From TrEMBL, chain A:
Keywords: Antiport, Cell membrane, Membrane, Transmembrane, Transmembrane helix, Transport. Pfam families: Proton_antipo_M. One of its GO terms (biological process) is ATP synthesis coupled electron transport. It comes from Paraliobacillus quinghaiensis. Residues 129-419 form the NADH:quinone oxidoreductase/Mrp antiporter transmembrane domain. This is Na(+)/H(+) antiporter subunit D. Its main location: membrane. GO terms for cellular component: plasma membrane.
UniProtKB/TrEMBL annotation, chain B:
This is Na(+)/H(+) antiporter subunit C. Keywords: Cell membrane, Membrane, Transmembrane, Transmembrane helix. It is found in: Cell membrane. It comes from the Bacteria. Gene3D superfamilies: 1.10.287.3510. Its main location: membrane. The chain crosses the membrane at residues 6-26, 38-58, 70-89. InterPro entries: CPA3_antiporter_subunitC, NUOK/Mnh_C1-like. It holds the Pfam family Oxidored_q2. It is a multi-pass membrane protein. Belongs to the CPA3 antiporters (TC 2.A.63) subunit C family. GO terms for cellular component: plasma membrane. NCBIfam families: PRK08600.1 (NF006372), PRK09094.1 (NF006573), PRK12660.1 (NF009303).
Length: 496, 112
């Protein structure tokens, strides 16, 4: 039964390998890729369902039947399955958008295989219960992302991808260093076993050092202040479908790892670690949004917004109450959906106008009203206007921070909210209002709807996340209560 | 023995930091290679450098070496090998396209 747990990892891996053989036949590739992405989504939702209805709400699998602290385990709790479902949704949507926008030359050079290998790494990182295995899945994800980000090989892409790769390789080397210290101190790398041993080891100084090292590693991969500098430029280069996938998913894998590690393992001294996390969250939010305000390019503004919103998620962890974490989890769901949608809108706009520079656009609302209003809904959702999904998650985060009396972060979060609204309105006013500046007849009505079709499900989802806030918030609260009580996780894995 | 290796790891890390901060593309690549070597050696040292005993001798063995760090390093070496190969190709292509290996000239303009 629990062998089902391997499917979200194995399915994309096999599909990716099969697709290599059909590299030159791009029509066939599309059919295979489309069907398998949809079945991956089905698998993810079914996995989410069986975990949710399971009495303990955690399903584990000991790979190769090696008992838990010695072998590798896969653990599907509610947080992990939620992330797998979200990654599959984004995977499907970006893939169908790629069918419409990716040049066939790129398709022939192994675009789809790496797309699926990326999903393999992402799903594996969510489901694993072993620190070293987490490293391995991170690397699977990263090496596919290196290929996808430089895919096409334009001068800009090569130049910026080099910095992205070097930054991530340094972070990966420090990941190994942190793992070595952790293994030397505790003698284990199984997360559940670590959670137990860290509590009984009276080695606070060393453990604090290791915790900060992990924070550095995941912070570099998740674009936390002050390690976010690589993100805006490198996400600008690749085509919109890839930017959307990266913007929606990749940094969130880093954030997932931070939340997992700092709720399960390093909770021995929350005064110290979680205060640092809260300060970093404030810096991330504030400097990210300042970057967005200063830019005049569609994709660049969105890239800087990724940074500022990563700050909100980490803020939930820094405040560290059930309500705050529930807000952070709700925010992750909201962010992955809305951010991917916005990047895809940027891609659609680029297809119409041939540019992403806002000052060269204008009047799109007249010529493409559907695009304009759907973008408007997503932008309002991102800025946190009720009744859309962004409002409820930010409300929970700020309410939790007020209850905890961390007023500084509340002020930062509110100011950042206003600046977010300002920069989203900047896009809307420059690109959609005013007189049309460039001839916009490159895309006719029918093609326009073909472009919008993959994005519409995401917009509908963000509206649903807002209008059905009550059940979704209850779910997030369930997730946050589960991850705040490491005993559940430990018992499920070690079978006590 | 551990102290000697620890010093070696320190040297590797400092040299690699210097190389990564230089302006030449290829030196940066060499820097990342040395840094991963340092990290691998660190894993080995952290497991304890037992001399003269085999990793696994059954349950009744009187002395053995911890096999886990070796397994971890093997995996990590393979990964860093793949990464380095990819990075070298990327470096070469970047050099071909931009006709320079000076990172100062690869900064990009402010307005793009």
């Amino acid at each position: 039964m629990s062998n089902f747990l391997t499917l979200p990892i194995l399915l994309p891996m096999f599909i990716g390998t099969i697709l290599i053989f059909f590299a030159k036949k791009h029509k066939l590739q599309r059919v295979i890729a489309g069907f398998s992405a949809l079945s991956l989504l089905g698998v993810a939702i079914y996995l989410g369902y069986i975990v949710y209805t399971d009495p303990s709400q955690i399903i584990t699998l000991e790979i190769g039947d090696w008992p838990a602290p010695f072998g590798i385990v896969l653990v599907a709790d509610m947080f992990a399955t939620m992330m797998v479902i979200l990654s599959s949704i984004v995977g499907v949507v970006c893939l169908f958008f790629a069918f419409k926008t990716i040049h066939s030359d790129r398709e022939k050079f192994y675009f789809y295989p790496f797309y699926f290998y990326l999903l393999t790494g992402v799903n594996g990182a969510f489901l694993t219960g072993d620190m070293f295995n987490l490293f391995v899945f991170f690397e699977v994800m990263l090496i596919s992302s290196y290929v996808l980000i430089v895919h096409g090989g334009t001068g800009y892409q090569l130049r910026e991808s080099f910095k992205y790769v070097v930054m991530n390789m340094v972070a990966s080397a420090f990941f190994l260093v942190a793992l070595a210290y952790l293994y030397a101190t505790t003698g284990t790398l199984n997360m559940a076993d670590l959670a137990e041993r860290v509590q009984v080891l009276e080695q606070e100084g060393i453990l604090n050092g290791i915790a900060i090292l992990f924070l550095f590693v995941f912070g570099a991969k998740g674009a936390l202040f002050p390690l976010y500098f690589w993100l805006p430029k490198s996400y600008y280069g690749p085509p919109a479908a890839i930017s959307a996938l990266f913007g929606g998913l990749l940094t969130k894998v880093g954030i997932y790892a931070i939340i997992r590690v700092f709720t399960l393992i390093f909770v021995h001294n929350t005064e110290f670690t979680h205060t640092i996390i809260l300060i970093l969250a404030g810096g991330t939010m504030f400097f990210g949004v300042l970057g967005a305000v200063s830019q005049f390019d569609f994709k660049r503004i969105l890239s800087y917004h990724i940074i500022s919103q990563v700050g909100y998620m980490v803020m939930g962890l820094g405040v560290y109450t059930p309500l705050a974490l529930a807000g952070a989890i709700y925010y992750i769901a909201h962010h992955i959906i809305v951010k991917s949608a916005l990047f895809l809108f940027a891609g659609a706009t680029q297809k119409i106008t041939g540019t992403t520079e806002l000052k060269k656009m204008g009047g799109l609302l007249k010529t493409h009203p559907w695009l304009g209003w759907l973008f408007f809904i997503s932008a309002m959702s991102l800025a946190g206007i009720p009744p859309l999904s962004g409002f409820f998650s930010k409300f929970a985060l700020i309410l939790a921070a007020v209850q905890k009396e961390s007023y500084y972060i509340v002020v930062v979060a509110l100011v950042v909210g206003i600046l977010t609204l300002f920069s989203m309105m900047k896009i809307f006013m420059y690109a959609f209002w005013g007189e049309p500046k460039i001839s916009q007849d490159k895309v006719n009505r029918k093609e326009m709807f073909a472009l919008l079709r993959p994005i519409i499900p995401l917009v509908v989802l963000t509206i649903c996340l807002g209008f059905f806030a009550e059940p979704i918030f209850q779910y997030s609260l369930g997730v946050s209560e589960q991850i705040l009580d490491p005993a559940n996780y430990v018992n499920a894995v070690l079978g006590k | 023995m551990e102290i000697l290796i620890a010093l070696l790891i320190g040297v590797l890390f400092s040299v690699s930091t210097y190389l990564i901060l230089t302006k030449s593309l290829f030196r940066v690549v060499l820097g990342t290679v040395l840094m991963s070597h340092g990290a691998h050696l660190l894993i080995l040292t952290m497991g304890g450098l037992g001399v003269g005993s085999a990793p696994l001798l059954g349950e009744g063995a009187s002395s053995y070496t911890d096999p886990l760090p070796q397994a971890l390093i093997l995996t990590a070496i393979v990964i860093s090998f793949g990464m380095t190969a990819l990075l070298l190709v990327m470096t070469y292509r970047t050099y071909k396209v931009h006709q320079t290996d000076d990172l100062d000239k690869l900064r990009g303009r402010l307005d793009e």
